[in-house]
Amino acid sequence: MAREIPEDCRKLNELSIPQFLISCALMVWLLLCYLPQWHRIVSRRSAEGLSTLYILLGSLSGVCAIGNIMMLPSSAIDIGCCRTNNTFACISGLLGILQVTFGISCFWVVLFMYVYYSEQEAEAEIRGRRHSVSGPDETFQRARQGWIVLMIACGFALGILLVSALILHWFPSASQAWANLLGVCVAAFACVQWIPQVATTWRLGHLGSLSALGLCLQVPYAWAFGISMLVRVGFAGWSAWVVYFIVGAMQLVIISFAIIFAIRDKHKPKEEQNDETRQPTETSRLLEY
């Protein structure tokens, strides 16, 4: 006897090839967005320029984003339909969850890089192998804060996982409300996340280990992905997509800073630039390292 396919699952079986290809292209685009950021941190061997609060709030926002998309009733339907739909329809239905998870994983790579290179830079300063980019005091402080950020992020992720599991098991009717609350937290963390980064970038007068190319790629991605999620979950699932429009706008602010700094530096002698920053130029850093 053939298994009866629920109505919601029949809709997922009606595959939209263009939407599937767009979703896959967005994941590739996201990887391309993060490659310049990873490369910049590795090439400078420093986390200087990345705000500790930016890393912390971004990590917490990512945890809430995964919790949000997993707790949405529409996601439960997508996962459940994998028992009746074919493999391709199952993967297509789960692309929204996969996109969010992949994006957060890419940011957590930045988190681990931040912790690792902060520690490495501090150790190199202590042993005299090389001088830190931002000075010993700030480097040692960043190394200490990096481990604190990692522990807070992991503890927060465990807490969200436990609460979500309890709600799904004991109070499934509250799933939408919990998802909306997590969505609000995502938006709040994502908005506040960029405030310390904007302040840090403006204070330093340069981007440091923050990649301008990565930001330029991330702005259109954030908005395109927001539109993709809007189409997938609708206005009722606003908490899953509104954050991406906000993040894109905040990233534009950082990009505008980069343009301002480039114009400023273009009209200054190199000696004056080095005196103000008290550190070598970006080109000389890369050659030295």
UniProtKB/TrEMBL annotation:
DNA repair in keyword set: no
Record has Membrane as a keyword: yes
GO cellular component terms listed in the entry, alphabetical order: membrane
One Pfam family linked to the record: PQ-loop
SMART domains, per the entry: CTNS
PANTHER family with a match to the protein in the record: PQ-LOOP REPEAT-CONTAINING PROTEIN (PTHR16201:SF11), SEVEN TRANSMEMBRANE PROTEIN 1-RELATED (PTHR16201)
Protein name per Swiss-Prot or TrEMBL: PQ loop repeat protein
Organism annotation: Teratosphaeria nubilosa
Organism classification: Eukaryota, Fungi, Dikarya, Ascomycota, Pezizomycotina
